[in-house]
Structure formats: structure tokens, C-alpha cells
Amino acid sequence: MNRTANVTILTLLAVIGLGATYLVQRSNEPQIAAAQRQLDSRTLLDVLAPDAYDNQPLEQPLTLTEVTLSHSHLVAGYRASREGQPVAVLLRSQTQGYASTLELLIAIDPNGKLLGVKTLKQNETPALGGLIGDWPNAWLAAFTGKSRNEPAESAWALKKDQGQFDQIAGATITSRAVINAIHDALRYFDEHRAALQGSGT
């Protein structure tokens, strides 16, 4: 065989290989997408007990209005329900930490009480503010059961700021940012409760 024939054969084999790869990827896209949704669901919804809801909250995102809050910004919201009744509203919140933007998932029950908080994204200082990314997280768990007015408005602060909450050791700015974002989300829920739970506008 001459050089031209060799190049033609190699080119043809490369095209066939690329085409086969493309076809395999296309045929597997639905399974890949479903697996990614399942992974996202587990990652996001593990602030809730698996048997607490029976819908697919991530497949029906809520329409949020007035999303720029005092200390944070809401980027998404979801409603978890069981037998058609709301059991939780989940708000994705972004706020500025010490070294990075923090993204939190904040779960609130129908009475406005906090069910749980999870850090979805952060790039804070390792071994200091970076501890906010641990899951499960003992510091974040201390907020469970709190609501907009429990404790009182002035107590939604660090103890060093005359508030009720301890800080993550060595991470004052990160701790303040998270406390403020959680309180923002609880206020938002309280002010938009009917729409978030699907019982009105």
C-alpha cells in the first residue's frame, strides 16, 4: 500500500471510531442524565429524612420573587411534600464568606422552623471556615429547630456580637455570614409562606 492509501484508511478508522463514540454517548444520555439527577437529589435532599417526602422536589423548582435579601441572595427553591401536603421548603442561598461565595441549602418546615442546613459550595480557609463544608456538620446542626423569631431578632448573631450563637473557631466572618443567611431565609419563608407552600400567592 502506498502512503495515501494508509492515510485514507487511518482517517476512515478515526471517523468510524468518533462516530461510534458519539452514537454510544447519545444512546446513553438518558441514563447518564437520570443518574446525575439521582446524585443531585441525594446530595441536595439529605437534609431531609428519605421517608419524609414522596415527591421529586428538584423536578419542580419554585418560582421565587424578591430574591435579594439583607445579607444573601436566593438562587433556587423547592417544595418537598408527602401525599400532596408540603413537609418542607428548601431554599438555595448564596452569601459572601471570608474567602469565597458560600452556597447553602436551608430546609424549613411548614411552621417556619429550621429542619437543617447544608453547605453546597464553599472555598473558605481549610481547617477554619472550610469546616463549614463538612457533612454532617455539628455547628450547622445547632440551628435546627430555630425560626425567624426564635431566638429573638437581636439574638441572631454571634455571642461575641451579643447574640446567641457560637462561631466556628477562627472563622468569625464565615460564621457571621452563615448565621445571617439562615436568618434571611427564615424571614423570607415567613413573608412568602403561602406561595412557597402552594397554598396561595
Describe the protein's architecture and organization.
With 201 residues, the protein is α+β, with helices and mostly antiparallel strands. The chain has two domains: 1-45; 52-197. It is 36% helix and 19% strand. The chain is built from four helices and four strands. It has helices at residues 3-45, 138-141, 172-191, 193-197, and strands at 73-82, 85-96, 101-108, 114-121. Strands 1-2-3-4 form a four-stranded antiparallel beta sheet, covered by helices on one side. The model has no long low-confidence stretch (mean pLDDT 90).
Topology (SSEs and partners):
Layout: H1 3-45, E1 73-82, E2 85-96, E3 101-108, E4 114-121, H2 138-141, H3 172-191, H4 193-197
Antiparallel strand pairs: 1-2, 2-3, 3-4
